[in-house]
Amino acid sequence: METIRSFIAIEPDPPARAWLEGWLGTLRERGGGVRWVRKENLHLTLRFLGEVPADRTDGVAAILAARARPVPPAPLEFDAPGTFGPRRSPRTYWLGILPGPGLDAVRAFQAGVEADLVAAGFPPEDRPFSPHFTIGRNPGGARVEGWESTLPSWPGAGRPGFVARGAVLFRSDLRPQGPIYTVLAEAPFAAPAGTEVARP
Question: Which structural domains are found in the chain, ordered by start?
Answer without folding.
Answer: 3-198 (3.90.1140.10)
